[in-house]
């Protein structure tokens, strides 16, 4: 009886093995790229003060930060669009004077959704007492829409590549997709700087000096696809 069971299991395994067929396929990669002009920016500014007493340094820093936050609010930026990113108060040793001092600093991130306000806002921030502008990251308010477009372009690119390869093979064509793998980066958009032209006003006079090179941002999608060969 035991031998009979083993024979039956072996026979079933043989039938299964015969039924498994290798599916001819081709694996390719595709890239979709969308270039757009950004309409938003993330601006990161910092306030920092140094002194001999911790309480004094913190108080001075807090006073400037208060001015900065009130200024941002006065410029019509919603409270949801600006946020404190980092607050520090620490003791620091100055090797030149051989003495300790205290450093207080705070960084604030501002989501500016109207780039026409950029120049005026930056000048006001400097006047309010910030020490540095730590970075400006350009963004698009339609990022999800552009990501979708980039993914579709990546799939079309992958299919075109597969058809190019198969076109030289007699009697074969590209069939349905078996496996699709998204290899897109998550840290885009990355800035691609371009020169901005000075625009003329209706009366022929020149616009005020531009200080922001917006350029373009690239939204990129990468995909790997395995197609059936028919």
TrEMBL record:
Name of this protein: Secreted protein
Alphabetical keyword list: Signal
Zinc-finger listed as a keyword: no
Pfam families: SIMPL
Species this chain originates from: Flavobacterium cheniae
UniProt key word Signal: yes
Signal peptide stretch: 1-17
Single GO biological process annotation from the record: DNA damage response
Domain of life: Bacteria
InterPro entries linked: 26kDa_periplasmic_antigen, SIMPL/DUF541
């Amino acid at each position: 009886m035991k031998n009979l069971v083993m024979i039956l299991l072996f026979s079933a395994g043989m039938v299964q093995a015969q039924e498994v067929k290798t599916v001819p396929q081709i694996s390719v990669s595709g890239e979709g790229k969308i270039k757009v002009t950004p309409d938003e920016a993330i601006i990161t500014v910092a306030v920092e003060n140094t002194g001999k007493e911790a309480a004094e340094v913190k108080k001075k820093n807090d006073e400037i930060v208060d001015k900065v936050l009130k200024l941002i609010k006065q410029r019509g930026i919603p409270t949801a669009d600006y946020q404190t990113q980092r607050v520090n108060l620490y003791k620091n040793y100055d090797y030149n004077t051989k003495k300790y001092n205290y450093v207080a600093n705070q960084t604030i991130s501002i989501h500016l959704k109207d780039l026409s306000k950029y120049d005026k806002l930056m000048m006001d921030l400097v006047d309010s007492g910030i020490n540095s502008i730590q970075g400006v990251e350009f963004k698009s308010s339609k990022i999800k829409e552009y990501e979708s477009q980039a993914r579709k372009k990546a799939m079309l690119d992958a299919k075109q590549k597969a058809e190019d390869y198969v076109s030289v093979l007699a009697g074969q064509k590209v069939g349905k997709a078996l496996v699709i793998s998204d290899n897109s980066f998550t840290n885009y958009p990355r800035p691609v700087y371009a020169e901005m032209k000075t625009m003329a006003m209706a009366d022929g006079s020149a616009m005020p000096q531009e200080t922001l090179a917006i350029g373009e941002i690239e939204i990129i999608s990468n995909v790997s696809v395995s197609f059936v060969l028919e």
